[in-house]
Write a structure and sequence with these properties.
Shape: elongated
Number of domains: 2
Distance between the termini: 15 Å
Helix content: 25-40%
Number of strands: 13
Structural class: alpha/beta
Amino acid sequence: MPQNPIPSRRGLLFGTAAVSAGALLTACTSNEPKETETTEKTETTGDQAPIAGDKPGKAVTIGFAGPQADHGWLNAINDNARSRAKKYDDVTLEITEGSNDTAAQIGQVQTLINKKVDVLVILPADGKALTQIGLQAMREGIPVINLDRVFASPQAYRCWIGGDNYGMGLNAGRYIGERLKDKADAKVIELAGVDSLELTKQRTQGFDDALKNYPNIKKVARQAADFTVESGQAKMAQLLQAQSRFDALWNHDDDQGVGALRAIAQAGRKDFLMVGGAGAKSAMDAIKADDSVLKATVLYPPTMAASAIDIARAVAQRKGIGGMSELEIPASITLYSAVVTKANVDQYLPTGFS
């Protein structure tokens, strides 16, 4: 799963996570005339945000390199990039197979540099390890759009766009806090992601900071899983055994949440509410059905990959962002971590990933 810059480097906050940066780029990135706009929706590619605006520009070749799609969210990242690129007659997308091996991914990016693509979009398997290849591309005059997992140096990219891990935890905590604010001696537990990842630390920190505003709520347990169904089920079973009573669960990831829900069902527990994270379609379906403990999920939208394609095209064609006075693309764009509940799930379902 992704890592984003520390909170002090959050750039431009979008008002909603479901609509990608394409909505903000409406005045500068489209080759679809307004009278032929479409609002056709799909489950995984964020196509609910219509592309509208200017005429086709110069032909642009975008190189896209990401890690291996071994997780639902990462697979949705690739789908979003491909889908958005197809919207543009003036964009050719060169996409790599993806690898979690940093040396292999560096080699893939080097190949794209050798092909002299106009702009690169890179979601690094390891931001620090791939910083040098980002610096090389920038030195050779190829702008880099750094997607989500941040490079170690801002000189390695022209624009960073990604999710808000701290904001995920913060908004999960606020939602739970508001639901439990009138309950005396409320208890919550946390099913985190991979503790070695900075993103996990940020999600936990945001959650803990939110709970500071609710003195009646105490976090009584935390268990780290591995972003898989199997780990979610095993770690959740341990939490349920150890905690006979609690009022809410914050689960960092909807993929491991599938396993967590299995463990909860097997234990016959219905005495608490659960908040997930990322925005999987399975989670949104469960929220809409309202037949389980899962009542909300906090988005970490894979539509950011579609937005990265929009931004890459605009940078290559030397365009700015519609609706902003500046002539240049911002240096940093942080997406908002919206909370999806039964009240608004229909709005966000088209962005849910499998």
